[in-house]
Design a protein that fits this description.
Length: 106
C-alpha cells in the first residue's frame, strides 16, 4: 500500500498517512525493518533522524509492506516510478551508507 510521510520520529520510525483506498486514510506509526539506528538520547540519534528527514520529508510518497513480524513493523521504500532521493536507491541502503544505521537483515 502507499502512503505519505507525516513526520519522522527517529532514524527508522515514521508517522505515515496510509491510503487504504476509497478515500479512506489511516495514520500509523511504523518502524522500518532490516536496519537499526541509535535510540533516542544515545549518541548518533539526532544525526540519524536528520538523515531520515532529508530522505523522507513530510509529504514524501512511500510504499509500505507490512512484514508480519510484529504490529507496526514494515518495509518502507520510496514510491515506485519516483526518482530515488538518494544515490543508493532505497531508504535502508541510504541509511546504512550514511553511517547512521547498521544492517539487520543477516
Amino acid at each position: 500500500m502507499s502512503g505519505k510521510i507525516v513526520s519522522v520520529i527517529d532514524g527508522r520510525t515514521f508517522v505515515v498517512d496510509l491510503d487504504l483506498g476509497w478515500n479512506v486514510h489511516h495514520y500509523a506509526t511504523l518502524r522500518a525493518t532490516n536496519y537499526d539506528c541509535p535510540a533516542d538520547g544515545l549518541p548518533g540519534w539526532l544525526e540519524a533522524k536528520k538523515v531520515a528527514q532529508r530522505l523522507l520529508p513530510p509529504g514524501a510518497t512511500v510504499v509500505v509492506k507490512t512484514t508480519g513480524e510484529s504490529w507496526g513493523y514494515a518495509e518502507i521504500e520510496y514510491a515506485p516510478y519516483w526518482q530515488p532521493v538518494s544515490e543508493e536507491g532505497s531508504l535502508r541502503t541510504a541509511m546504512i551508507a550514511s553511517g547512521h544505521a547498521r544492517d539487520r537483515s543477516l
